[in-house]
Amino acid sequence: MAATIDATLQGASANSFVTLAEANAYFETTPDDTNWVDKTDDQKNRALISATRFIDDFEFCGERCTTTQALKWPRKDYKVDGIKLVCTLIPDEIKVATFELARALANNTTALTGSKGTDGTYQEVKLGDLEVKYNENSLNPGMVNTILDVFPWVTSYLGPYTKVGAGNYAVRLERG
Fold first, then answer.
1. Which residues of 30-51 are buried (b: 16+ CB within 10 A; e: fewer)?
2. What confidence score (pLDDT) does residue 173 get?
3. d(CA 36, CA 26)
């Protein structure tokens, strides 16, 4: 069955922050769109829905606009760069994060599926003069990669809106 996007703002059944038309228009303005235009509409829709799910897992500042909206965006009661969030739109940074993450997921469908556990954590272990060398990019068997493990650049778009911070994964402190 083909994936269908519902990008209704504040929608109770919304499953994407963006439409396929918005994504296609965005990629027409990027230096290289070949890793997007070579996908079918169904692949693109699935990638956009998946990207939205992963982004929607973040803890965002501000409040949801309604209690019935399916997704965490749009939001209210928060300012970024002096601009107040409003319930009539999703900020461009959230949309761009969705576009770029969708492209990344469409081109690496297993990026977030987790470790096979076949590579092992250790490259080398010695007992004399105790030495341990870890395999690069290795996780314990069964551990699932998080979106920030695999695509740390996502915080450059989402950082100002989330409680995880930007770039260095700092925690945002708010005075009550």
1. eeeeeebeebeeebbbbbbbbb
2. 57
3. 10
Strands 122-126 and 83-84: unpaired
Q: Which helix (H) or strand (E) holds 93?
A: helix 92-107
Which parts of the chain have pLDDT scores under 70?
A: 113-127, 131-145, 164-176
In 3D space, the residue among 154, 152, 150 whose CA is nearest the CA of residue 101 turns out to be: 154
The residue type at 38: D
Residue whose structure tokens are 């973040």: 58
Closest CA to 57 of 170, 167, 162, 173: 162
Helical axes 41-56 vs 92-107, angle rounded to 10°: 120
Cα–Cα dist 139/148, whole Å: 14
Contact 55, 131 (CB under 8 A): no
Quote the distance between the C-alpha of residue 10 and its chain's center: 19
Q: How much is the pLDDT for 144?
A: 55
Residue owning tokens 């230096």: 31
Quote the CA–CA distance of 48 and 18 in Å, as a whole number: 7
91 with 161: CB under 8 angstroms? yes
Q: Which residues of 69-81 are buried (b: 16+ CB within 10 A; e: fewer)?
A: bebbbbbeeeeee
Cβ neighbours, 10 Å, residue 164? 17
